[in-house]
Write a structure and sequence with these properties.
This protein has 439 residues and is an alpha+beta fold. It is built from 13 helices and 17 strands. The strands form three sheets. The protein has a ten-stranded antiparallel sheet, with helices on both faces. A five-stranded mixed sheet has the order 12-11-13-15-14, sandwiched between helices.
Length: 439
């Protein structure tokens, strides 16, 4: 949800302003300028919740310029700008880069993920890894020409680096960004289903179903497959967020983080050729998935060598939920998925993690991963899972309702993220060969 919120740094600025009023009741224009510069220097010298030392600058901005871009559920945040060329240079050269989280330094052990070749060709690079010496930590970074996007996890506390999509007034290229942690989030709005995915797995005829089962049995679940996904969007998202390409690349990286462990490489094919047509379609708000397929029929997917089609939609849909897909056994929509990129009145705020959860969820359906409740499924084990850790409940990514506590992980029979009756990972390894053969 969007709304007016406060900054960590704003309270510091207000205190400085009050002191200035008390000590200097009247100043000249030149004095005022020097005070402003001093104030800017003081704010720049402060350290953000998440920063990269001298490669990060704090910003103090008029709240009116940014509050519509930052969800009101994020109660505290810091505005920052990064030295992107130097950060990218460090990472591409394999140099050690230190990140500071709440003042504590950590060395990141990162490797570039080279699956998204189209993004790399435009200067967008993604990195995956961990914090050196910190057990079970996770780091996901995407560095583009204008923004740095990221998620860092320590002991189930998540630290986020997001973009406002607003040009920084002091930089010719960088965008104003904000950093915060999961501890700063207070969910607002109602909890809603992510989608209205049909419960029945028999939407296709028996002959087609039998053919898929035969192909599943012939496939090697240990093999690694490449699934090419055409990623399309509309003019609305491109206009609302000029850095949408960086965000799209980051979403794909988040999805690949767990898909890769299951032997699936999601390779995106970005396509904006019909962005304006999608925006002009009268059904784009009420029936985004069907409208998407109308402009990207299977023949078009085949012409682009795409197994699946994914629509990252820039509108707040009136459709029930914030995502949709036909699912593995749908007769006509089995190759299609839609995820909403716009904020919603529910707890869905359309920050990067929210978007990644919904996108990964809908792609999961394309591999026959199911919700926690799916009584008419032929398979009885492909179910989402809820687990208890660090004094709260968490859900795997296929959970039916959108939850801020959802984890970017498919359920698995590992005694932690699931068990023999909650094992979407198994189902994905069974169906991945079929999905990879669509084109």
């Amino acid at each position: 949800m969007n709304g007016k919120i406060g900054l960590r740094a704003f309270s510091m600025l207000l205190a400085v302003m009050l002191v200035s009023v008390v000590l200097v009741p009247a100043v000249s224009a030149s004095d005022s300028k020097s005070k402003d510069e001093q104030m800017s220097n003081r704010s720049a010298s402060e350290k953000a919740l998440v920063h990269f030392g001298d490669l990060t600058e704090m910003r103090i901005a008029d709240e009116k310029e940014v509050y519509t871009k930052i969800p009101s559920s994020i109660k505290n945040y810091d505005l920052v700008v990064f030295d992107l060329p130097k950060i990218r240079e460090h990472l591409l050269h394999g140099d050690q880069l230190t990140v500071y989280l709440e003042g504590q330094p950590y060395t990141m052990d990162l490797q570039e993920t080279t699956i998204d070749t189209e993004a790399i060709a435009t200067g967008i690079h993604s990195f995956t890894g961990s914090l050196t010496g910190v057990e079970d930590s996770q780091v996901l970074l995407t560095v583009g020409n204008n923004v740095l996007l990221g998620r860092i996890v320590i002991d189930y506390t998540e630290y986020f680096i997001e973009s406002t999509s607003i040009q920084d007034s002091k930089s010719s290229s960088a965008f104003l960004q904000y950093v915060y942690s999961s501890k700063d989030i207070v969910p607002e709005g109602d909890t809603i289903p992510i989608d209205s995915h049909p419960l029945s797995t028999h939407a296709i005829d028996e002959k087609a179903y039998a053919l898929k089962k035969m192909l599943e049995e012939q496939a090697d679940p240990r093999a690694t497959v490449t699934v090419r996904v055409l990623v399309a969007t509309d003019s609305q998202w491109m206009t609302d967020e000029p850095d949408w390409q960086d965000t799209a690349a980051a979403i794909i990286q988040y999805c690949n983080y767990d898909f890769n462990t299951l032997g699936v490489n999601i390779v995106p094919i970005y396509d904006t050729s019909k962005a304006q047509q999608l925006s002009n379609d009268p059904q784009i708000i009420s029936s985004p998935l069907s409208a998407f397929k109308n402009y990207f029929p299977e023949s078009y997917l085949n012409s682009k060598s795409a197994d699946l089609g994914l629509y990252l939609g820039g509108y707040d849909s009136s459709f029930q939920g914030v995502g949709s897909s036909g699912g593995y056994d749908h007769s006509s929509l089995y190759r299609y998925a839609w995820a909403q990129m716009a904020d919603d009145p529910s707890t869905y705020d359309a920050v990067l993690k929210d978007r990644a959860i919904v996108t990964m969820h809908e792609l999961g359906h394309a591999f026959d991963a199911a919700h926690e409740y799916a009584p008419y499924q032929t398979e009885t084990y492909n179910r989402a899972y809820e687990f208890y850790e660090h004094n709260q409940y968490w859900q795997t990514v296929m959970w039916g309702c959108f939850m801020k506590s959802a984890w970017l992980q498919f359920s698995a029979n590992d005694g932690f993220y699931g068990d023999a009756n909650h094992d979407n990972s198994r189902r994905i390894t069974e169906t991945k060969g079929v999905v990879a053969s669509y084109c």
